[in-house]
Amino acid sequence: AVSDDEVFNETVKGSFWHIRYQVLNALPGEPKTVEIATTRPETLLGDTAVAVHPDPAAAFEHLIAQQREKIEASGDKDRPLLATQLDNLIARRDQTLPALSILRDMALDGRQVMLPLMNRPIPLVADIWAKPEMGSGCVKITPAHDPNDYEVGLRCGLPMISILNSDGTLNSSAGVYQGLSIKQAREKVVADLDALGLLGDIEDRDIELPHSDRSKTPIEPLLADQWFVKMDALAQSAIEAVETERVKIFPVRYRKGYIDWLSEKRDWPVSRQLWWGHRIPIWSAGPLAESEVGDLVAKLTGISSQSDELTHQVDKNEYGQSYVFVCLRRENEELESAVERLGLVRDPDVLDTWFSSALWPHSTLGWPDPTPELSYFYPTSTLITSRDIITLWVARMVLMGLNNTGKVPFDEVFIHPKILDGLGETMSKSKGNGVDPIDIVEKFGPDALRFALAWLATETQDVRMPVQYECPHCAKLIDQTKKNRSLPRVDCPSCGRPFSTQWAESEDDRKLPRGAVVSERFETARNFVNKLWNAARFTLLHLNDFEPVAIDRESLPLEDRWLLSRLSSVTSTVTEALDHYRYAEAARVLYDFAWDEFCSLYVEMAKARLADPSTRAATQAIIAHALDTLLRLLHPFMPFVTEEIWSHLGTVAPVRGLAISPQTPAQRTSRFVMLASWPTAEPRNDADDKIERQFAVFREVLGAVRKIRSSQNIPPRDAVPVGVRCNLEAAELLTPMKVLLESLATASIESLGPQTQPFATDAPLAIPTLDIDVHVDLERFIDIDAELQRLERLLSQIVKQIAGKEQKLNNDSFVSRAPAQVVDQERQSLEELRRQELGLSADIQKLRIRIGD
């Protein structure tokens, strides 16, 4: 047996067979046959009825009203198709309703049809499962082999005829088809129906075929006695645990799937016919006569009076036969023997693995005994798992924990994304498409592995990680494919030499060097580790004479106050992200701060002050504090490199921290960063916000100058004249930073403010988000003819983009159907392109004047 949650549907090519059932004793005006359509013709051998809707007229009116509501709520694009569907529905009603009404009356009158091939009369029944808008409006009912038909069978009191053995062959109820496989039976049934003239049209269709999630093979519904867990009360308690946030789920969007699944409150089938597992602790005897039941119950009552570990129950089936069931609360060989001596037999089935797994949080701690471990460790704090077992495992652990202990099993659940290979498939050892963590550690380092996984752990559902072999001969990477990932040896396309894979079995293959299984997705993390290490080496080098000093924050230079403000902001953001399991956000914030702000900007600004004896001590205190805080924040992501740097930092600056607030007193730090306290963000103020805005603008302008220098291949040591056109507010922010800008950009600021004009030989770069234009004078650095050609090429590209935007915005269909926000974005983009066109045209004209063109 499998649970519904362990079944998935897969679209496959199939057929729709139309079959005619003869009406018995048809009266004048009644149809001689009833036609049904099915994708599983072999199951008609177990049919026990043909159903028609009890009120087809009302069903049609309901469908027509729904379709009209859809039309009223639809847009212009969808309305014509919906209107056509409505017309077709009305036409079908007018065409089929008279015949369906007659069949409905026949069903209510107890009429019968002859089951083809089996020559067994079966009733026409009226049931809402029949859809008058589909097929002939009638449907065959096979209660033992279809879950929906089973429900019809219960409602209509139909017999349940099972035609399948557990091995998938047909049993004696299938008559002459006994012993055939499902495929063989299907072919023979279709051929026999055709020979009798009872087979109608055969339609080719894509059908949804149920598959087992474990075996990935098609499954067939089979009627069998199974043990179920009644879910009403259990499910409700688990729903309330999440709704009241006794259990918090992150990301929050996964709450809906959890609650929706439990809200169905479907009873849970826990019987499994497997060779291994926890055997169901239930013994039974029956059917028994009433006198036998009384005698057995009396003996069981005597046993249970001496032990509370045994319970018993008497049940009667639908035929009035009595059965006695016994359940033991825990393993007890003496009780088991006593029960079996009374003639009861233990159920051969085992429990669903997920049933056993649902007990894991408390059963591993000694439950049901009140052990010290259970008292101390239960409930746990956090469960980390994948989204595909939220219902199979997470929800069931919650409901089992609440039922067995009265407490939720954990306070928080973090649902992580699934890492797929480059082809979008789940990584699997059997497929050979998973990266080897040992190979990743050897090539990129353990910190790169850890940081990269955190970087990838976004709140999206899946993460794709292309997998490559690394050639052991030339170190080139070879993309894994479905073909080469299963080969015992692979030939490197770069050097031509072979290497072995995990599938190598022959002696010759095993002698080859093994190709590591890696992914380029770890490259960024390794580069980050190296960047941090290099920045730390620079810092440590300049702390050789470090002595703690008192710091007056108000007297600190602008860049120090900015760094302290950014440290506080980053600490706050990272802490909040980690508290809510947003690991990718925390990793990206730390990466951006460490690389772009601390390493690439602050360290550069600090070099001159570290070389000046008058400012060295204060700068040392700030940079030591910054590195200290950064190492604490990065330690969960990079434990090894941060611990190593921390040990060196402790050697040169054992007492560090800034005596500028209660949160950052100078103090002797712990020996290991893993034992150090987590940083605390300082209270924010308006001055901090202004400084951060100031440096945000500064970094954009600095980046623009550097980008122009790079694009023009200007030598690093050559200072360039720079003009910055900006509004008064930006000018106010940038003016105090003029010296820093000139130093870091190797530039001389010629003009700053709204009055700034382009140079005669100008290289401009716009910063649209800030309404700032950066200009660099290229008179001493460029070949005017080459620059003119570059600008003309750029202008040509801009003109083409403008034409494309204009064509799109002149399209009434786009403007009327696209969201207003998208249309506005397109218009703003067009305006920006036109502004760039004007600027480029002016620059080109100036250059032409200079060369006398």
Key terms:
31 strands, alpha+beta, Rossmann fold, 853 residues, four-stranded antiparallel β-sheet, seven-stranded mixed β-sheet, globular, Isoleucyl-tRNA Synthetase, domain 2
Structural features, described:
The chain has about 850 residues and is α+β, with helices and mostly antiparallel strands. The protein has six domains: about 210 residues, Valyl/Leucyl/Isoleucyl-tRNA synthetase, editing domain (Isoleucyl-tRNA Synthetase, domain 2); about 190 residues, 3-Layer(aba) Sandwich (Rossmann fold); about 100 residues, no CATH class; about 160 residues, Isoleucyl-tRNA Synthetase, Domain 1 (Orthogonal Bundle), CATH 1.10.730; about 100 residues, hypothetical protein PF0899 fold; about 70 residues, Helix Hairpins (Orthogonal Bundle). The chain is about 45% helix and about 20% strand. It has 26 helices and 31 strands. Strands 1, 2, 3, 4, 5, 6 and 7 form a seven-stranded mixed sheet that branches. A four-stranded antiparallel sheet has the order 13-14-12-15, with helices on one face. A four-stranded mixed sheet has the order 29-28-31-30, with helices on one face. Helix 12 links the parallel strand 17 and strand 18. The longest helix has about 30 residues. The radius of gyration is 38 Å and the shape is globular. The chain starts with 6 loop residues before the first strand and ends with a helix. The model has no long low-confidence stretch (mean pLDDT about 90).
